[in-house]
C-alpha cells in the first residue's frame, strides 16, 4: 500500500488527467461521430464521400501514428495549443470514426417508411434525421457506443508518451522514486478500472431506461 499512500497527489493528478481526456474526447467523438453518420446517409454525394473518407482513413490509421501527426505535426503549421488539447483532438477524431459506424448501423435499423413519411410531410433531410430517425436509432446504439467510449478511456494511455498528464504516465515518476513496478502498475490498473466501470455503469443505466428490449 505504500506506493499508493505515499503518492496520493501523483495518482490523483494522473487519474484526473485520464478523466479529463476521456470526458472531453468522448464529447468530441460523439459530436463528430453523429455528424459523420449523417453525412454517410445524406442524399448529397459529396457529403457521403467525405464521411466515407473520414471513417476509412481514421479506422485504418494506428492511433499512435495519429498522435504523432496531431501533437508533432500541427505545431509545424503554426497551430500552438497545449498538448492535452492536441491529445483530445487525436482521441476524439479517432474514436468518432467508430461512433459514426455505430450510429449509422442504428440508423439502418429504422424502417425506411419512417423517413419517407417525414419527407411526405415536407420535412428536410436534416429535420427528418434529427427529429425522426436519430431518436429511434439512439435506442439501439447505446451498447456499442458505450463499448467504444470504454475503449477510448483505455486508449488515452497513449497520451502519456507525449508529455500529457494521465494515469499510466505516473509509473515513470514512481519508477524513478524506486517503487516496485508491479505495485505501481497494479494501482494504475485500479484507476483505469474505476474509469471504465463508471462508463459501463452509466451506459447500463441508459440501456435499461431507453434501450431496445430483447
UniProtKB/TrEMBL annotation:
<keyword id="KW-0813">Transport</keyword>
<keyword id="KW-0472">Membrane</keyword>
<feature type="transmembrane region" description="Helical">
    <location>
        <begin position="53"/>
        <end position="74"/>
    </location>
</feature>
<keyword id="KW-1133">Transmembrane helix</keyword>
<feature type="domain" description="ABC transmembrane type-1">
    <location>
        <begin position="15"/>
        <end position="207"/>
    </location>
</feature>
<feature type="transmembrane region" description="Helical">
    <location>
        <begin position="21"/>
        <end position="41"/>
    </location>
</feature>
<feature type="transmembrane region" description="Helical">
    <location>
        <begin position="81"/>
        <end position="99"/>
    </location>
</feature>
<comment type="similarity">
    <text>Belongs to the binding-protein-dependent transport system permease family. HisMQ subfamily.</text>
</comment>
<dbReference type="InterPro" id="IPR035906">
    <property type="entry name" value="MetI-like_sf"/>
</dbReference>
<dbReference type="InterPro" id="IPR043429">
    <property type="entry name" value="ArtM/GltK/GlnP/TcyL/YhdX-like"/>
</dbReference>
<dbReference type="InterPro" id="IPR000515">
    <property type="entry name" value="MetI-like"/>
</dbReference>
<dbReference type="InterPro" id="IPR010065">
    <property type="entry name" value="AA_ABC_transptr_permease_3TM"/>
</dbReference>
<protein>
    <submittedName>
        <fullName>Amino acid ABC transporter permease</fullName>
    </submittedName>
</protein>
<keyword id="KW-0812">Transmembrane</keyword>
<keyword id="KW-0029">Amino-acid transport</keyword>
<feature type="transmembrane region" description="Helical">
    <location>
        <begin position="181"/>
        <end position="206"/>
    </location>
</feature>
<keyword id="KW-1003">Cell membrane</keyword>
<dbReference type="Pfam" id="PF00528">
    <property type="entry name" value="BPD_transp_1"/>
</dbReference>
Amino acid at each position: 500500500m505504500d506506493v499508493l499512500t505515499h503518492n496520493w497527489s501523483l495518482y490523483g493528478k494522473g487519474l484526473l488527467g485520464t478523466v479529463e481526456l476521456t470526458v472531453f474526447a468522448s464529447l468530441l467523438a460523439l459530436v463528430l461521430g453523429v455528424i459523420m453518420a449523417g453525412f454517410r446517409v445524406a442524399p448529397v454525394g459529396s457529403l457521403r464521400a467525405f464521411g466515407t473518407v473520414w471513417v476509412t482513413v481514421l479506422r485504418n490509421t494506428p492511433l499512435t501514428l495519429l498522435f504523432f501527426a496531431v501533437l508533432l505535426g500541427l505545431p509545424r503549421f503554426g497551430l500552438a495549443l497545449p498538448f492535452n488539447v492536441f491529445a483530445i483532438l487525436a482521441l476524439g477524431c479517432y474514436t468518432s470514426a467508430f461512433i459514426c459506424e455505430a450510429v449509422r448501423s442504428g440508423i439502418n435499423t429504422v424502417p425506411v417508411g419512417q423517413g419517407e413519411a417525414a419527407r411526405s410531410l415536407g420535412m428536410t433531410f436534416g429535420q427528418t434525421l434529427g427529429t425522426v430517425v436519430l431518436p429511434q436509432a439512439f435506442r439501439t446504439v447505446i451498447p456499442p457506443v458505450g463499448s467504444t467510449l470504454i475503449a477510448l478511456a483505455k486508449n488515452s494511455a497513449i497520451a502519456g508518451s507525449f508529455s500529457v498528464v494521465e494515469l499510466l504516465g505516473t509509473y515513470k515518476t514512481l519508477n524513478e522514486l524506486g517503487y516496485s513496478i508491479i505495485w505501481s502498475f497494479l494501482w494504475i490498473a485500479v484507476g483505469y478500472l474505476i474509469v471504465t466501470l463508471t462508463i459501463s455503469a452509466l451506459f447500463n443505466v441508459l440501456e435499461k431506461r431507453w434501450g431496445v428490449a430483447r
